[in-house]
Task: structure prediction
Amino acid sequence: MDLVPALEEPLKKVLGPATAKVMAEHLGLHTVGDLLHHYPRRYEERGQLTHLADLPMDEHVTVVAMVADARLHTFASAKAPRGKGQRLEVTITDGSGRLQLVFFGNGVHKPHKELLPGTRAMFSGKVSVFNRRLQLAHPAYELLRGDSEETVESWAGALIPLYPATAKLESWKIGKAIQTVLPRAQEAVDPLPPGLREGRGLVTLPEALLKIHRPHTKADVEDARSRLKWDEAFVLQVALARRRHADAQLPAVARRPRPDGLLTAFDARLPFTLTEGQQKVSKEIFDDLATEHPMHRLLQGEVGSGKTMVALRAMLATVDAGGQAAMLAPTEVLAQQHHRSVVEMMGELAEGGMLGGAEHATKVVLLTGSMGVAGRRQAMLDLATGEAGIVIGTHALIEDKVQFHDLGLVVVDEQHRFGVEQRDALRGKGKQPPHLLVMTATPIPRTVAMTVFGDLETSVLDQLPAGRSPIASHVVPAADKPHFLSRAWERVREEVENGHQAYVVCPRIGDEEDDPKKSGKKKSPEDEAEKRPPLAVLDVADQLAKGALKGLRVEVLHGRMHPDDKDAVMRRFAAGDTDVLVATTVIEVGVNVPNATAMVIMDADRFGVSQLHQLRGRVGRGSAAGLCLLVTEMPEASAARQRLNAVASTLDGFELSRIDLEQRREGDVLGQAQSGARTSLRVLAVIEDEEVIAEAREEATRVVTADPELTEFPGLRVALDALLDEEREQYLEKG
Result:
């Protein structure tokens, strides 16, 4: 993070080219500074030295002993059927007792060369019993050359750091490399302003680096971690604060709606009143649109909280003010659906330039990749002339050929499915930077929003509009209680008999096996453990139509269908011509069929918490109550079942997003949201360290407001340059 000349030295100069190459290729470490910031994942306490005579079972022990005897055996096994398996048995003694060590497979070569009778070494591992004898399997060992008491003592009593390692580089080799460069930690330049560091009682950076790699006590580790967490949170928040500061300097056209224009006419048509939340968020957005620098706002709302309505009113306000608004959707199905619902909500206000269009009307066009040539050409003409005030589309909107007359507002739906580059390309189409509204139905915990979307202001819609019904969710344990599954299909029939419709969601499509590349893949042990492949749409639809749901109109929908076929299926379902839609997660985002009241999710344990919550939001969108059944074969005590119980027990998306984040690694969440930029978080945990992140954001804003160029803080600038290597710099530019 903080690279100064001593820490910028390439590792190949310090550690030799072979080690440096492995570190660069497998761990992404290139300089002394990179290596110093490769922190231990955890610490092993090597027991005080144990006598062989009194070894405890199942504990991690460290012994100093001499090799008495070593023998290599060959044997046949499933992996090595022709007697090619190898097992090395080494007997060691310390005068008080004897102990057997075993090494298998490729692991035998090195110890076979090194552990010759008479060799003294330290051995460290977990004690187990085999054939009624104590043994250590694949112990770690360090040879002792000469009688160095000091080595023995320091090795046994210390906290041993275990590093994130790779098959090519064991943790202790990394540890040794770090010992080599550790003296240079003294030259690390501290990025934290001295006042901030002293005010919070944090140790200096050199001391933190020393303590995290060579702790004497657990308190050392704590000191180091709390200091390094601050570094990460603060440097990242300074980068985001500078981004916000720079954005605030950009020019934009203020877009204020006309007092009796399109927006007023639209509001007058609405058959309901907006919720308090919608009114509050709309006001925040209109205030931003009225300023002369670009709005950057993230709109989070539960599934069905009425985000689309809020976004549409912002688009109408922009059109009123003489600009154009573009809405980007992640899929064609969703773009078509947004287009349909916007045109329906606007009625004659969407018929600008047509007979019967209202006086303030504008044109609302759709632009997707699969449209016919003539349709595309007309849509592009309407955009270039300004005839169309609103355009809804997929990435097709970003192509070079698409020109806008005066792009004033960009609305991005489901941001996490949309790369930063794409948002950037669309923003580049305005004469001046357009205003930006990003919508997401995936509730994001506050700290993640501050970390990932830290350059956006956040608005939250947390009330459901009147008339939305609650959704009851239940876990159906198909393996323990098969009759529950039969009852689930009866419930689907009951919903259909009452005039409603249902979804059945499966993890995969079912035609993948035709692909020889995929089916020829060797299965990993994890796959084998899962026993059967996830249930597939095509198989399940077929079984249901012939069995449990015989006589009902069952159709399938998945991502590999031709766009026209997908659209036709969705239209039939929306019109009520289909009773049950068996689909993959293509229905996860934005599909709106108020008459669909039931959803059965097969193999629900194969989906993430947030994804299940998204899917569930597709039912209960009308006046009838929704029902969501989570079918699983996982046993009662498994983590997967607990996850499903959590989803069934609450409809609060923010609560679920916390659970989701605690169960997955932050890297996934940040990595996904950062569109693949490597997460820079090493010791900061986004959920646990909520306070650190919030305080760091305040401190960062204060520092940047007072000194945007950071002239007073050379150490902080160095740290920023390291964090914002070019890729990341561009990433934030595009944010």
